[in-house]
Specification:
The structure is a homotrimer. Chain A is an all-alpha fold. Chain A has one domain. The first copy, chain A, is built from 9 helices and no strands.
Protein backbone atom coordinates (compact mmCIF):
# COMPACT_ATOMS: atom_id res chain seq x y z
CA UNK A 1 0.00 0.00 0.00
CA UNK A 2 2.73 2.45 0.98
CA UNK A 3 4.77 1.35 -2.00
CA UNK A 4 1.82 2.05 -4.27
CA UNK A 5 1.30 5.48 -2.72
CA UNK A 6 5.01 6.36 -3.04
CA UNK A 7 5.05 5.08 -6.61
CA UNK A 8 2.10 7.29 -7.54
CA UNK A 9 3.80 10.31 -5.96
CA UNK A 10 7.04 9.52 -7.81
CA UNK A 11 5.17 9.21 -11.13
CA UNK A 12 3.42 12.53 -10.52
CA UNK A 13 6.71 14.16 -9.56
CA UNK A 14 8.47 12.78 -12.65
CA UNK A 15 5.58 13.98 -14.80
CA UNK A 16 5.69 17.48 -13.29
CA UNK A 17 9.49 17.75 -13.69
CA UNK A 18 9.32 16.49 -17.29
CA UNK A 19 6.50 18.93 -18.16
CA UNK A 20 8.53 21.86 -16.77
CA UNK A 21 11.49 20.87 -18.93
CA UNK A 22 9.43 20.28 -22.06
CA UNK A 23 7.70 23.64 -21.74
CA UNK A 24 11.05 25.45 -21.56
CA UNK A 25 12.23 23.47 -24.61
CA UNK A 26 9.07 24.58 -26.42
CA UNK A 27 9.92 28.23 -25.69
CA UNK A 28 13.28 27.56 -27.36
CA UNK A 29 11.46 25.92 -30.30
CA UNK A 30 13.30 22.61 -29.96
CA UNK A 31 11.91 19.72 -32.00
CA UNK A 32 10.03 16.83 -30.39
CA UNK A 33 13.15 14.78 -29.79
CA UNK A 34 14.97 17.73 -28.22
CA UNK A 35 11.97 18.51 -26.02
CA UNK A 36 11.76 14.88 -24.94
CA UNK A 37 15.44 14.81 -23.96
CA UNK A 38 15.19 18.11 -22.07
CA UNK A 39 12.12 16.79 -20.23
CA UNK A 40 13.88 13.52 -19.46
CA UNK A 41 17.03 15.24 -18.22
CA UNK A 42 14.95 17.53 -15.98
CA UNK A 43 13.16 14.53 -14.48
CA UNK A 44 16.04 12.05 -14.10
CA UNK A 45 19.19 14.21 -14.34
CA UNK A 46 19.54 14.88 -10.62
CA UNK A 47 19.14 11.22 -9.69
CA UNK A 48 21.59 10.26 -12.43
CA UNK A 49 24.32 12.54 -11.05
CA UNK A 50 23.60 11.14 -7.58
CA UNK A 51 23.93 7.54 -8.81
CA UNK A 52 27.20 8.29 -10.62
CA UNK A 53 28.56 9.83 -7.39
CA UNK A 54 27.34 6.78 -5.45
CA UNK A 55 29.15 4.53 -8.01
CA UNK A 56 25.94 2.70 -8.91
CA UNK A 57 23.91 2.13 -12.08
CA UNK A 58 21.58 5.09 -12.84
CA UNK A 59 18.13 4.17 -11.51
CA UNK A 60 16.31 4.75 -14.83
CA UNK A 61 18.39 2.01 -16.51
CA UNK A 62 16.64 -0.55 -14.28
CA UNK A 63 13.03 0.50 -14.95
CA UNK A 64 11.69 1.93 -18.19
CA UNK A 65 8.66 3.72 -16.83
CA UNK A 66 10.59 6.97 -16.36
CA UNK A 67 10.96 7.03 -20.15
CA UNK A 68 7.27 6.24 -20.59
CA UNK A 69 6.14 8.95 -18.16
CA UNK A 70 8.33 11.48 -19.99
CA UNK A 71 6.72 10.42 -23.29
CA UNK A 72 3.30 10.98 -21.71
CA UNK A 73 4.47 14.41 -20.51
CA UNK A 74 5.54 15.25 -24.08
CA UNK A 75 2.15 14.17 -25.41
CA UNK A 76 0.33 16.22 -22.78
CA UNK A 77 2.30 19.37 -23.58
CA UNK A 78 1.79 18.94 -27.35
CA UNK A 79 -1.95 18.25 -27.06
CA UNK A 80 -2.98 20.47 -24.15
CA UNK A 81 -0.54 23.30 -24.61
CA UNK A 82 -3.01 26.13 -24.13
CA UNK A 83 -4.76 24.54 -21.18
CA UNK A 84 -1.50 23.83 -19.36
CA UNK A 85 -0.86 27.54 -18.93
CA UNK A 86 -4.09 27.79 -16.95
CA UNK A 87 -2.90 24.83 -14.87
CA UNK A 88 0.28 26.59 -13.77
CA UNK A 89 -0.70 26.35 -10.11
CA UNK A 90 -1.45 22.64 -10.41
CA UNK A 91 1.90 22.00 -12.11
CA UNK A 92 3.62 24.02 -9.37
CA UNK A 93 2.00 21.90 -6.66
CA UNK A 94 2.99 18.63 -8.37
CA UNK A 95 6.49 19.97 -9.01
CA UNK A 96 6.90 20.85 -5.34
CA UNK A 97 5.58 17.48 -4.14
CA UNK A 98 7.93 15.77 -6.62
CA UNK A 99 10.84 17.87 -5.35
CA UNK A 100 10.16 16.85 -1.76
CA UNK A 101 9.90 13.17 -2.68
CA UNK A 102 13.04 13.23 -4.84
CA UNK A 103 15.05 14.72 -1.95
CA UNK A 104 13.80 12.04 0.44
CA UNK A 105 14.60 9.28 -2.09
CA UNK A 106 18.08 10.71 -2.68
CA UNK A 107 18.84 10.98 1.02
CA UNK A 108 17.56 7.49 1.82
CA UNK A 109 19.58 5.91 -1.01
CA UNK A 110 22.79 7.62 0.16
CA UNK A 111 22.24 6.45 3.73
CA UNK A 112 21.54 2.92 2.47
CA UNK A 113 24.91 3.10 0.67
CA UNK A 114 26.60 3.83 4.00
CA UNK A 115 27.38 7.53 3.56
CA UNK A 116 27.14 9.97 6.49
CA UNK A 117 24.23 12.38 6.86
CA UNK A 118 26.04 15.43 5.42
CA UNK A 119 26.65 13.51 2.19
CA UNK A 120 22.99 12.40 2.20
CA UNK A 121 21.82 16.03 2.41
CA UNK A 122 23.98 16.94 -0.58
CA UNK A 123 22.78 13.90 -2.54
CA UNK A 124 19.15 14.70 -1.68
CA UNK A 125 19.62 18.28 -2.89
CA UNK A 126 21.34 17.06 -6.07
CA UNK A 127 18.50 14.59 -6.70
CA UNK A 128 15.87 17.29 -6.31
CA UNK A 129 17.51 20.37 -7.77
CA UNK A 130 20.21 19.42 -10.28
CA UNK A 131 17.97 17.99 -12.99
CA UNK A 132 16.93 21.63 -13.43
CA UNK A 133 20.58 22.71 -13.62
CA UNK A 134 21.28 20.17 -16.39
CA UNK A 135 18.08 21.32 -18.13
CA UNK A 136 19.29 24.93 -18.09
CA UNK A 137 22.72 23.90 -19.41
CA UNK A 138 21.05 22.02 -22.30
CA UNK A 139 18.83 24.96 -23.27
CA UNK A 140 21.87 27.25 -22.91
CA UNK A 141 20.58 29.45 -20.08
CA UNK A 142 22.13 30.42 -16.77
CA UNK A 143 20.81 27.96 -14.17
CA UNK A 144 17.58 29.39 -12.77
CA UNK A 145 18.14 28.10 -9.25
CA UNK A 146 21.34 30.17 -8.97
CA UNK A 147 19.42 33.39 -9.41
CA UNK A 148 15.75 33.49 -8.74
CA UNK A 149 14.19 31.03 -6.42
CA UNK A 150 14.41 29.46 -3.00
CA UNK A 151 14.61 25.96 -4.40
CA UNK A 152 17.82 24.19 -3.44
CA UNK A 153 17.63 26.06 -0.14
CA UNK A 154 14.31 24.34 0.58
CA UNK A 155 15.98 20.97 -0.13
CA UNK A 156 18.82 21.76 2.28
CA UNK A 157 16.35 22.92 4.95
CA UNK A 158 14.45 19.65 4.57
CA UNK A 159 17.70 17.70 4.73
CA UNK A 160 18.72 19.44 7.95
CA UNK A 161 15.36 18.58 9.54
CA UNK A 162 15.87 14.96 8.47
CA UNK A 163 19.25 15.06 10.19
CA UNK A 164 17.87 16.73 13.32
CA UNK A 165 15.16 14.09 13.74
CA UNK A 166 17.67 11.30 13.11
CA UNK A 167 19.89 12.89 15.76
CA UNK A 168 16.92 12.84 18.19
CA UNK A 169 16.35 9.14 17.37
CA UNK A 170 13.13 9.77 15.45
CA UNK A 171 11.98 6.90 13.23
CA UNK A 172 12.80 6.82 9.53
CA UNK A 173 9.18 7.49 8.57
CA UNK A 174 9.06 10.58 10.80
CA UNK A 175 12.35 11.79 9.32
CA UNK A 176 11.04 11.40 5.78
CA UNK A 177 7.62 12.94 6.36
CA UNK A 178 9.11 15.90 8.26
CA UNK A 179 11.76 16.44 5.59
CA UNK A 180 9.20 16.41 2.78
CA UNK A 181 6.82 18.66 4.71
CA UNK A 182 9.50 21.27 5.40
CA UNK A 183 10.53 21.32 1.73
CA UNK A 184 6.94 21.83 0.57
CA UNK A 185 6.24 24.49 3.22
CA UNK A 186 9.46 26.43 2.59
CA UNK A 187 8.99 26.33 -1.18
CA UNK A 188 5.33 27.38 -1.07
CA UNK A 189 5.98 30.16 1.44
CA UNK A 190 8.97 31.39 -0.58
CA UNK A 191 6.78 31.74 -3.68
CA UNK A 192 3.84 33.27 -1.80
CA UNK A 193 6.01 35.82 0.03
CA UNK A 194 8.52 36.20 -2.80
CA UNK A 195 11.49 35.19 -0.66
CA UNK A 196 14.91 35.09 -2.22
CA UNK A 197 18.52 34.74 -1.14
CA UNK A 198 20.84 37.77 -1.11
CA UNK A 199 22.44 38.41 -4.47
CA UNK A 200 26.22 38.66 -4.91
CA UNK A 201 27.84 41.78 -6.23
CA UNK A 202 25.36 44.34 -4.99
CA UNK A 203 27.59 45.66 -2.27
CA UNK A 204 29.96 47.79 -4.27
CA UNK A 205 27.11 49.68 -5.90
CA UNK A 206 25.00 50.13 -2.80
CA UNK A 207 27.69 50.86 -0.27
CA UNK A 208 30.13 52.95 -2.24
CA UNK B 1 40.20 -9.50 -40.82
CA UNK B 2 36.85 -8.32 -39.55
CA UNK B 3 38.59 -6.71 -36.59
CA UNK B 4 40.88 -4.85 -38.97
CA UNK B 5 37.95 -3.67 -41.06
CA UNK B 6 36.00 -2.54 -37.99
CA UNK B 7 39.09 -0.80 -36.60
CA UNK B 8 39.56 1.14 -39.84
CA UNK B 9 35.90 2.18 -39.80
CA UNK B 10 36.18 3.24 -36.16
CA UNK B 11 39.31 5.29 -36.90
CA UNK B 12 37.59 6.98 -39.84
CA UNK B 13 34.51 7.65 -37.72
CA UNK B 14 36.59 9.10 -34.88
CA UNK B 15 38.47 11.25 -37.38
CA UNK B 16 35.23 12.55 -38.93
CA UNK B 17 33.65 13.32 -35.53
CA UNK B 18 36.83 15.07 -34.33
CA UNK B 19 37.07 17.14 -37.53
CA UNK B 20 33.45 18.28 -37.13
CA UNK B 21 34.17 19.41 -33.55
CA UNK B 22 37.45 21.13 -34.43
CA UNK B 23 35.85 23.05 -37.29
CA UNK B 24 33.14 24.42 -35.00
CA UNK B 25 35.83 25.37 -32.46
CA UNK B 26 37.65 27.22 -35.26
CA UNK B 27 34.52 29.23 -36.01
CA UNK B 28 34.53 30.27 -32.34
CA UNK B 29 38.26 31.14 -32.64
CA UNK B 30 39.34 28.77 -29.88
CA UNK B 31 43.07 28.20 -29.56
CA UNK B 32 44.71 24.91 -30.60
CA UNK B 33 44.26 23.33 -27.20
CA UNK B 34 40.59 24.31 -27.02
CA UNK B 35 39.99 23.01 -30.55
CA UNK B 36 41.70 19.73 -29.67
CA UNK B 37 39.53 19.27 -26.57
CA UNK B 38 36.33 20.12 -28.49
CA UNK B 39 37.31 17.63 -31.21
CA UNK B 40 38.14 14.98 -28.63
CA UNK B 41 34.88 15.51 -26.73
CA UNK B 42 32.91 15.27 -29.98
CA UNK B 43 34.61 12.00 -30.86
CA UNK B 44 34.71 10.25 -27.47
CA UNK B 45 32.13 12.13 -25.37
CA UNK B 46 29.17 9.91 -26.23
CA UNK B 47 31.07 6.72 -25.47
CA UNK B 48 32.37 8.25 -22.24
CA UNK B 49 28.84 9.01 -20.96
CA UNK B 50 27.83 5.46 -21.95
CA UNK B 51 30.76 3.95 -20.04
CA UNK B 52 30.02 6.03 -16.93
CA UNK B 53 26.40 4.83 -17.07
CA UNK B 54 27.62 1.23 -17.53
CA UNK B 55 29.90 1.72 -14.46
CA UNK B 56 33.03 0.86 -16.44
CA UNK B 57 36.29 2.64 -17.27
CA UNK B 58 35.92 5.03 -20.24
CA UNK B 59 37.15 3.18 -23.34
CA UNK B 60 39.69 5.83 -24.36
CA UNK B 61 41.61 5.37 -21.09
CA UNK B 62 42.57 1.87 -22.27
CA UNK B 63 43.87 2.78 -25.72
CA UNK B 64 45.63 6.01 -26.64
CA UNK B 65 44.94 5.97 -30.36
CA UNK B 66 41.74 8.01 -29.93
CA UNK B 67 43.97 10.85 -28.69
CA UNK B 68 46.35 10.33 -31.60
CA UNK B 69 43.56 10.32 -34.20
CA UNK B 70 42.18 13.55 -32.73
CA UNK B 71 45.66 15.11 -32.97
CA UNK B 72 45.77 14.06 -36.63
CA UNK B 73 42.33 15.63 -37.12
CA UNK B 74 43.62 18.88 -35.59
CA UNK B 75 46.63 18.84 -37.90
CA UNK B 76 44.43 18.18 -40.95
CA UNK B 77 42.09 21.07 -40.12
CA UNK B 78 44.98 23.48 -39.50
CA UNK B 79 46.87 22.51 -42.67
CA UNK B 80 44.05 21.81 -45.13
CA UNK B 81 41.48 24.26 -43.85
CA UNK B 82 40.43 25.64 -47.22
CA UNK B 83 40.33 22.27 -48.94
CA UNK B 84 38.20 20.71 -46.21
CA UNK B 85 35.31 22.98 -47.09
CA UNK B 86 35.27 21.44 -50.57
CA UNK B 87 35.31 18.01 -48.96
CA UNK B 88 32.10 18.66 -47.02
CA UNK B 89 30.34 15.76 -48.70
CA UNK B 90 33.21 13.38 -47.95
CA UNK B 91 33.26 14.45 -44.30
CA UNK B 92 29.48 13.96 -44.16
CA UNK B 93 29.78 10.41 -45.50
CA UNK B 94 32.53 9.52 -43.00
CA UNK B 95 30.56 11.17 -40.19
CA UNK B 96 27.48 9.11 -41.05
CA UNK B 97 29.43 5.86 -41.28
CA UNK B 98 31.07 6.68 -37.97
CA UNK B 99 27.68 7.43 -36.42
CA UNK B 100 26.31 4.05 -37.54
CA UNK B 101 29.34 2.20 -36.20
CA UNK B 102 29.32 4.06 -32.87
CA UNK B 103 25.67 3.14 -32.32
CA UNK B 104 26.38 -0.54 -33.06
CA UNK B 105 29.40 -0.51 -30.71
CA UNK B 106 27.38 1.17 -27.96
CA UNK B 107 24.49 -1.29 -28.29
CA UNK B 108 26.76 -4.35 -28.35
CA UNK B 109 28.70 -3.20 -25.27
CA UNK B 110 25.46 -2.64 -23.29
CA UNK B 111 24.16 -6.08 -24.25
CA UNK B 112 27.51 -7.60 -23.27
CA UNK B 113 27.08 -5.91 -19.87
CA UNK B 114 23.75 -7.70 -19.45
CA UNK B 115 21.35 -4.82 -20.00
CA UNK B 116 18.03 -5.30 -21.82
CA UNK B 117 17.52 -4.16 -25.39
CA UNK B 118 15.73 -0.89 -24.55
CA UNK B 119 18.76 0.19 -22.48
CA UNK B 120 21.04 -0.86 -25.37
CA UNK B 121 19.10 1.37 -27.79
CA UNK B 122 19.51 4.34 -25.44
CA UNK B 123 23.21 3.61 -24.93
CA UNK B 124 23.71 3.25 -28.70
CA UNK B 125 22.02 6.59 -29.29
CA UNK B 126 24.08 8.22 -26.52
CA UNK B 127 27.29 6.77 -28.01
CA UNK B 128 26.44 8.13 -31.45
CA UNK B 129 24.74 11.42 -30.74
CA UNK B 130 25.77 12.81 -27.35
CA UNK B 131 29.37 13.64 -28.17
CA UNK B 132 27.81 16.34 -30.32
CA UNK B 133 25.66 17.51 -27.41
CA UNK B 134 28.73 17.86 -25.17
CA UNK B 135 30.51 19.66 -28.03
CA UNK B 136 27.67 22.18 -28.28
CA UNK B 137 27.68 22.71 -24.50
CA UNK B 138 31.45 23.40 -24.61
CA UNK B 139 31.16 25.94 -27.43
CA UNK B 140 28.15 27.47 -25.62
CA UNK B 141 25.50 26.80 -28.28
CA UNK B 142 22.11 25.17 -28.05
CA UNK B 143 22.59 21.49 -28.99
CA UNK B 144 22.18 21.18 -32.75
CA UNK B 145 20.49 17.78 -32.64
CA UNK B 146 17.62 19.25 -30.59
CA UNK B 147 16.66 21.62 -33.38
CA UNK B 148 17.77 20.91 -36.88
CA UNK B 149 18.54 17.43 -37.98
CA UNK B 150 17.26 13.88 -38.02
CA UNK B 151 20.28 12.54 -36.21
CA UNK B 152 19.41 10.88 -32.93
CA UNK B 153 16.20 9.73 -34.60
CA UNK B 154 18.27 7.78 -37.12
CA UNK B 155 20.12 6.13 -34.22
CA UNK B 156 16.86 5.14 -32.55
CA UNK B 157 15.48 3.79 -35.85
CA UNK B 158 18.63 1.68 -36.28
CA UNK B 159 18.34 0.49 -32.69
CA UNK B 160 14.73 -0.58 -33.19
CA UNK B 161 15.71 -2.59 -36.29
CA UNK B 162 18.48 -4.23 -34.23
CA UNK B 163 15.84 -5.15 -31.66
CA UNK B 164 13.37 -6.40 -34.28
CA UNK B 165 15.94 -8.72 -35.86
CA UNK B 166 17.03 -9.98 -32.44
CA UNK B 167 13.36 -10.64 -31.68
CA UNK B 168 13.13 -12.66 -34.91
CA UNK B 169 16.24 -14.63 -33.87
CA UNK B 170 18.47 -13.09 -36.52
CA UNK B 171 22.22 -13.51 -35.95
CA UNK B 172 24.28 -10.78 -34.27
CA UNK B 173 26.04 -9.91 -37.53
CA UNK B 174 22.72 -9.45 -39.32
CA UNK B 175 21.46 -7.27 -36.44
CA UNK B 176 24.55 -5.08 -36.58
CA UNK B 177 24.68 -4.72 -40.36
CA UNK B 178 20.95 -3.97 -40.60
CA UNK B 179 21.15 -1.46 -37.75
CA UNK B 180 24.10 0.37 -39.35
CA UNK B 181 22.47 0.32 -42.78
CA UNK B 182 19.20 1.80 -41.49
CA UNK B 183 21.08 4.59 -39.68
CA UNK B 184 23.06 5.49 -42.82
CA UNK B 185 19.98 5.33 -45.07
CA UNK B 186 17.75 7.37 -42.74
CA UNK B 187 20.43 10.00 -42.21
CA UNK B 188 21.30 10.34 -45.90
CA UNK B 189 17.63 10.46 -46.94
CA UNK B 190 16.84 13.01 -44.22
CA UNK B 191 19.55 15.32 -45.56
CA UNK B 192 18.64 14.76 -49.22
CA UNK B 193 14.92 15.32 -48.66
CA UNK B 194 15.39 17.84 -45.84
CA UNK B 195 13.39 15.83 -43.33
CA UNK B 196 12.95 17.18 -39.84
CA UNK B 197 10.94 16.45 -36.72
CA UNK B 198 7.98 18.65 -35.76
CA UNK B 199 9.00 21.67 -33.74
CA UNK B 200 7.49 22.45 -30.34
CA UNK B 201 5.63 25.66 -29.73
CA UNK B 202 4.22 26.20 -33.19
CA UNK B 203 0.69 25.27 -32.28
CA UNK B 204 -0.44 28.38 -30.53
CA UNK B 205 0.53 30.54 -33.48
CA UNK B 206 -0.83 28.29 -36.20
CA UNK B 207 -4.03 27.15 -34.56
CA UNK B 208 -5.19 30.28 -32.80
CA UNK C 1 54.97 17.00 8.73
CA UNK C 2 54.88 16.62 4.97
CA UNK C 3 51.21 15.67 5.21
CA UNK C 4 50.53 18.83 7.15
CA UNK C 5 52.39 20.93 4.61
CA UNK C 6 50.56 19.30 1.68
CA UNK C 7 47.23 19.72 3.47
CA UNK C 8 47.85 23.43 3.99
CA UNK C 9 48.77 23.84 0.32
CA UNK C 10 45.64 21.92 -0.72
CA UNK C 11 43.45 24.09 1.51
CA UNK C 12 45.00 27.24 0.09
CA UNK C 13 44.56 25.93 -3.47
CA UNK C 14 40.93 25.00 -2.82
CA UNK C 15 40.34 28.44 -1.31
CA UNK C 16 41.91 30.19 -4.30
CA UNK C 17 39.93 28.12 -6.83
CA UNK C 18 36.68 28.68 -4.92
CA UNK C 19 37.30 32.44 -4.68
CA UNK C 20 37.89 32.64 -8.45
CA UNK C 21 34.57 30.87 -9.09
CA UNK C 22 32.63 32.93 -6.57
CA UNK C 23 33.93 36.20 -8.00
CA UNK C 24 32.77 35.23 -11.50
CA UNK C 25 29.38 34.24 -10.07
CA UNK C 26 29.20 37.67 -8.42
CA UNK C 27 29.78 39.36 -11.79
CA UNK C 28 26.75 37.38 -13.06
CA UNK C 29 24.78 38.48 -9.97
CA UNK C 30 24.05 34.95 -8.81
CA UNK C 31 22.60 34.62 -5.32
CA UNK C 32 24.63 33.26 -2.38
CA UNK C 33 23.66 29.67 -3.06
CA UNK C 34 24.51 29.93 -6.75
CA UNK C 35 27.85 31.57 -5.93
CA UNK C 36 28.63 28.83 -3.42
CA UNK C 37 27.89 26.10 -5.97
CA UNK C 38 29.96 27.80 -8.67
CA UNK C 39 32.85 28.18 -6.19
CA UNK C 40 32.53 24.56 -5.12
CA UNK C 41 32.40 23.28 -8.70
CA UNK C 42 35.48 25.34 -9.58
CA UNK C 43 37.38 23.88 -6.63
CA UNK C 44 36.28 20.23 -6.76
CA UNK C 45 34.87 19.78 -10.28
CA UNK C 46 38.11 18.67 -11.92
CA UNK C 47 38.83 16.08 -9.24
CA UNK C 48 35.23 14.88 -9.42
CA UNK C 49 35.46 14.19 -13.17
CA UNK C 50 38.77 12.42 -12.54
CA UNK C 51 37.26 10.22 -9.82
CA UNK C 52 34.26 9.32 -12.03
CA UNK C 53 36.69 8.32 -14.81
CA UNK C 54 38.73 6.30 -12.27
CA UNK C 55 35.48 4.59 -11.16
CA UNK C 56 35.92 5.69 -7.56
CA UNK C 57 33.91 7.75 -5.08
CA UNK C 58 34.46 11.51 -5.54
CA UNK C 59 37.08 12.60 -3.01
CA UNK C 60 34.95 15.35 -1.44
CA UNK C 61 32.31 12.80 -0.36
CA UNK C 62 34.87 11.35 2.07
CA UNK C 63 35.92 14.58 3.77
CA UNK C 64 33.69 17.59 4.39
CA UNK C 65 36.39 20.22 4.70
CA UNK C 66 36.22 21.05 0.97
CA UNK C 67 32.66 22.25 1.63
CA UNK C 68 33.80 24.20 4.67
CA UNK C 69 36.68 25.87 2.82
CA UNK C 70 34.30 26.89 0.03
CA UNK C 71 31.94 28.40 2.63
CA UNK C 72 34.90 30.36 4.03
CA UNK C 73 35.72 31.52 0.49
CA UNK C 74 32.11 32.72 0.07
CA UNK C 75 32.31 34.61 3.36
CA UNK C 76 35.63 36.20 2.37
CA UNK C 77 34.29 37.39 -0.99
CA UNK C 78 31.11 38.81 0.58
CA UNK C 79 32.94 40.60 3.40
CA UNK C 80 36.17 41.70 1.73
CA UNK C 81 34.90 42.22 -1.79
CA UNK C 82 36.65 45.54 -2.43
CA UNK C 83 39.92 44.50 -0.85
CA UNK C 84 40.08 41.27 -2.85
CA UNK C 85 40.48 43.24 -6.06
CA UNK C 86 43.67 44.73 -4.67
CA UNK C 87 44.81 41.22 -3.79
CA UNK C 88 44.56 39.98 -7.37
CA UNK C 89 48.25 39.12 -7.47
CA UNK C 90 48.02 37.19 -4.22
CA UNK C 91 44.99 35.24 -5.46
CA UNK C 92 46.85 34.51 -8.71
CA UNK C 93 49.83 33.11 -6.80
CA UNK C 94 47.62 30.88 -4.63
CA UNK C 95 45.62 29.81 -7.68
CA UNK C 96 48.82 28.80 -9.48
CA UNK C 97 50.19 26.92 -6.48
CA UNK C 98 46.84 25.17 -6.13
CA UNK C 99 46.85 24.29 -9.82
CA UNK C 100 50.30 22.70 -9.53
CA UNK C 101 49.30 20.70 -6.47
CA UNK C 102 46.00 19.54 -7.99
CA UNK C 103 47.83 18.23 -11.06
CA UNK C 104 50.32 16.32 -8.90
CA UNK C 105 47.50 14.86 -6.77
CA UNK C 106 45.56 13.84 -9.89
CA UNK C 107 48.58 12.18 -11.48
CA UNK C 108 49.57 10.33 -8.33
CA UNK C 109 46.02 9.02 -7.77
CA UNK C 110 45.81 7.71 -11.36
CA UNK C 111 49.17 5.96 -11.05
CA UNK C 112 48.07 4.47 -7.72
CA UNK C 113 45.01 3.10 -9.55
CA UNK C 114 47.32 1.31 -12.00
CA UNK C 115 46.88 3.50 -15.07
CA UNK C 116 49.79 4.23 -17.42
CA UNK C 117 51.57 7.58 -17.41
CA UNK C 118 49.73 9.03 -20.43
CA UNK C 119 46.41 8.51 -18.61
CA UNK C 120 47.92 10.09 -15.48
CA UNK C 121 48.90 13.21 -17.42
CA UNK C 122 45.34 13.56 -18.72
CA UNK C 123 43.88 12.97 -15.26
CA UNK C 124 46.28 15.51 -13.75
CA UNK C 125 45.27 18.08 -16.34
CA UNK C 126 41.58 17.33 -15.78
CA UNK C 127 42.06 17.69 -12.01
CA UNK C 128 43.75 21.05 -12.40
CA UNK C 129 41.96 22.64 -15.31
CA UNK C 130 38.46 21.20 -15.75
CA UNK C 131 36.90 22.63 -12.60
CA UNK C 132 37.24 25.93 -14.48
CA UNK C 133 35.57 24.43 -17.55
CA UNK C 134 32.59 23.26 -15.47
CA UNK C 135 32.49 26.72 -13.83
CA UNK C 136 32.29 28.39 -17.24
CA UNK C 137 29.53 26.00 -18.37
CA UNK C 138 27.52 26.83 -15.21
CA UNK C 139 27.84 30.60 -15.70
CA UNK C 140 27.02 30.10 -19.40
CA UNK C 141 30.30 31.36 -20.87
CA UNK C 142 32.66 29.82 -23.39
CA UNK C 143 35.38 28.05 -21.39
CA UNK C 144 38.16 30.55 -20.72
CA UNK C 145 40.97 28.01 -21.00
CA UNK C 146 39.99 27.29 -24.61
CA UNK C 147 40.68 30.86 -25.66
CA UNK C 148 42.88 33.03 -23.55
CA UNK C 149 45.45 31.49 -21.30
CA UNK C 150 48.31 29.05 -21.13
CA UNK C 151 46.70 27.03 -18.37
CA UNK C 152 46.02 23.46 -19.36
CA UNK C 153 49.21 23.64 -21.41
CA UNK C 154 51.16 24.32 -18.22
CA UNK C 155 49.54 21.22 -16.66
CA UNK C 156 50.53 19.08 -19.64
CA UNK C 157 54.10 20.45 -19.56
CA UNK C 158 54.34 19.57 -15.87
CA UNK C 159 52.92 16.12 -16.58
CA UNK C 160 55.49 15.47 -19.29
CA UNK C 161 58.31 16.45 -16.91
CA UNK C 162 56.86 14.05 -14.33
CA UNK C 163 56.94 11.34 -17.01
CA UNK C 164 60.48 12.20 -18.12
CA UNK C 165 61.84 11.99 -14.57
CA UNK C 166 59.97 8.71 -13.96
CA UNK C 167 61.51 7.43 -17.22
CA UNK C 168 64.96 8.39 -15.88
CA UNK C 169 64.20 6.54 -12.62
CA UNK C 170 63.92 9.72 -10.54
CA UNK C 171 62.21 9.30 -7.17
CA UNK C 172 58.51 10.08 -6.73
CA UNK C 173 59.28 13.18 -4.66
CA UNK C 174 61.58 14.54 -7.36
CA UNK C 175 58.89 13.82 -9.99
CA UNK C 176 56.26 15.67 -8.00
CA UNK C 177 58.37 18.68 -7.07
CA UNK C 178 59.67 19.05 -10.64
CA UNK C 179 56.15 18.72 -12.08
CA UNK C 180 54.73 21.35 -9.72
CA UNK C 181 57.68 23.69 -10.31
CA UNK C 182 57.33 23.50 -14.10
CA UNK C 183 53.60 24.23 -13.89
CA UNK C 184 54.16 27.27 -11.68
CA UNK C 185 57.05 28.57 -13.83
CA UNK C 186 55.23 28.08 -17.15
CA UNK C 187 52.05 29.68 -15.84
CA UNK C 188 53.83 32.69 -14.28
CA UNK C 189 56.00 33.23 -17.36
CA UNK C 190 53.00 32.93 -19.66
CA UNK C 191 51.19 35.69 -17.76
CA UNK C 192 54.28 37.90 -17.46
CA UNK C 193 55.19 37.59 -21.16
CA UNK C 194 51.58 37.27 -22.36
CA UNK C 195 52.12 33.92 -24.02
CA UNK C 196 49.23 32.26 -25.77
CA UNK C 197 48.58 29.34 -28.07
CA UNK C 198 47.86 29.90 -31.77
CA UNK C 199 44.20 30.56 -32.45
CA UNK C 200 42.19 28.49 -34.92
CA UNK C 201 40.55 30.07 -37.92
CA UNK C 202 42.97 32.90 -38.54
CA UNK C 203 44.49 31.34 -41.62
CA UNK C 204 41.81 32.05 -44.17
CA UNK C 205 41.81 35.73 -43.35
CA UNK C 206 45.57 36.17 -43.11
CA UNK C 207 46.67 33.98 -45.99
CA UNK C 208 44.00 34.63 -48.56
Amino acid sequence: MEITFLLIVEIIGTLAFAISGIRLAAVKRFDWFGAYIVGLVTAIGGGTIRDLFLSTTPFWMLNYWYLVVTAIALGLVIIFKRYLVRLDHTVFIFDTIGLALFVVIGMQKSIDFGFPMWVAIIMGTITGAFGGVLRDILINEEPLIFRKEVYATACIAGGLVYWLIAYCNGSTVVQQVACATIIIVVRVLSVVYNWSLPVMGNDSKKKN
